Amino acid sequence: MAVNHLIIMAIGGFIIYYGILLIGIAGKGRLEIVRALPKSVFYLTIPVGGFFIVYFALMHLLHREDLMPSAIKNFYPCPKEDAIDGL
Questions:
Q1: What does the pLDDT read at residue 86?
Q2: Contact predicate 54/13, CB 8 Å
Q3: What's the rounded mean pLDDT across residues 48-73?
């Protein structure tokens, strides 16, 4: 499992790195709808998603599930017992 988490972290790092490069490339253009915003605004989610991939893989690797959002009491809107199986 540790190797699996390390591979996932490497993929997350890859997404962060190339997401930042993509933001640099897209920053040269402007949006058609809102001229004041650069196109790179839409690409900000790529490195942010990569960060969360690395974060969650690291928390699983270190067995720190207490730092995961699911460990927060009442984080989900309904109790797990009330959730529909398979969804």
A1: 53
A2: yes
A3: 84
Based on its alpha-carbon atoms, the radius of gyration of the chain, rounded to whole angstroms, reads: 18
Q: Which spans in the chain are helix H?
A: 2-26, 40-43, 45-61
Displacement of CA 70 from its chain's centroid (Å): 15
Decide if 16 contacts 23 (C-beta within 8 A).
no
45-61 helix and 2-26 helix, angle to the nearest 10 degrees: 170
pLDDT digits (tens, 9 = 90+) for 15-41: 999 999 988 887 776 666 666 777 777
CB-facing half-sphere around the CA of 25: CA atoms within 13 A:
7
